[in-house]
Write a structure and sequence with these properties.
The protein is built from 13 helices and seven strands. It is of the alpha/beta class. The protein has one domain: Aldolase class I (TIM Barrel). The protein has a seven-stranded parallel beta sheet with strand order 1-7-6-5-4-3-2. Strand 5, helix 7 and strand 6 form a beta-alpha-beta unit. Helix 6 packs across helix 7. The longest helix is centred in the last third of the chain and has 16 residues. The protein is globular. The mean pLDDT is 95.
């Protein structure tokens, strides 16, 4: 079992009803809309999807909703929990539910040493034969899978097929490639480092803002991958204030606000505590940034 790692793969928000239960109808419509607008895969219940606040059964039900909603794109759920056992069980459920791959994260809260982290991700990768992405985000998870460790995992696990590199250091892509060549597909996981990652040879982008502006992100990625940097910058620079929203503590609230404003009928501002919706001057400032960025309409500049 294998898959092609390419294009823009949004890490999606989890939308809630008034009682903060998952709005499965809205999630299904949004998933279909993303695929219709050029996204190559969908990544539910990761960090941006408030995975830490979702129960095991909620994650399972969300996987089922996505798989039923889209047939033209792989569903690759984020696999993270407090314990290795929970992650292994979630990985097996994802396979049973028809998901096409797994995005394997470090465990919540515990940034162990390499021996511990290797044992954790190895258990999750080995739990199924699904193609896996190793998610490296040392800023958020305080665990850094350095190139030599990634090479070690790649040598031991055939179904580890790719890496979501979110260290914000584009040199990491070249360093991994130096060690293992084309053994793993390399992807970008930081929105305001996407063009740099494309220039370094990344083949896919797991994007936060891709869930709200799919046509923009798909076009930006296509331009970056084809070396048309000058044209890409016409999109990149006006959108950077939005792309940076994916890299701060309140990234969930900020991108939910973007989805509410940019995608009418596709989102709302509801978040699960301890997160709270934006309000007051923070909300007004966020709206101003969003409205200013969208008013430039970068796609119109490119006649798209």
């Amino acid at each position: 079992m294998s898959m092609e790692w390419k294009g823009v793969m949004p890490a999606t928000l989890t939308q809630f009803n008034v009682d903060l239960s998952i709005d499965h109808g809205l999630m299904a419509r949004h998933a279909q809309w993303l695929v219709e607008n050029g996204c190559s895969a969908l990544v539910p219940h990761g960090s941006l999807g408030e995975g830490a606040t979702l129960s095991f059964s909620e994650k399972v039900s969300l996987q089922k909703t996505y798989v039923a909603a889209v047939s033209d794109a792989p569903v690759i759920p984020g696999i993270a929990a407090l314990s290795t056992r929970q992650c292994v069980d979630l990985a097996k459920a994802a396979q049973d539910n028809g998901c096409s791959g797994l995005m394997v994260l470090p465990p919540y809260q515990y940034p162990g040493d390499w021996r511990e982290m290797k044992a954790h991700v190895a258990a999750v990768i080995s739990a199924t034969d699904l193609p896996c992405i190793l998610y490296n985000n040392p800023i958020a998870y305080k665990t850094d899978f350095v190139p030599e460790q990634i090479a070690e995992l790649a040598a031991e696990h055939e179904n580890l097929e790719s890496v979501k590199e979110s260290s914000t250091d584009p040199r990491r892509i070249a360093a991994i490639r130096e060690l293992i060549g084309d053994r793993l597909a390399l992807g970008v996981g930081v929105d305001d480092c996407a063009l740099e990652g494309a220039a370094m040879g990344a083949s896919f982008w797991i994007s936060g803002v891709g869930g709200q502006l799919p046509r923009h992100m798909v076009r930006l990625w296509e331009l970056g991958r084809s070396g048309r940097v000058a044209e890409a910058m016409e999109l990149y620079l006006p959108l950077l204030p939005l792309l940076r929203m994916d890299t701060v503590v309140k990234f969930v609230q900020l991108l939910k606000r973007l989805q509410t404003l940019a995608c009418p009928g596709m989102g709302n501002d509801r978040v699960r505590p301890p997160r709270l919706p934006l309000e007051g001057s923070e909300l007004a400032q966020t709206d101003a940034i969003i409205e200013n960025a969208l008013s430039a309409d970068p796609l119109a500049i490119l006649n798209l």
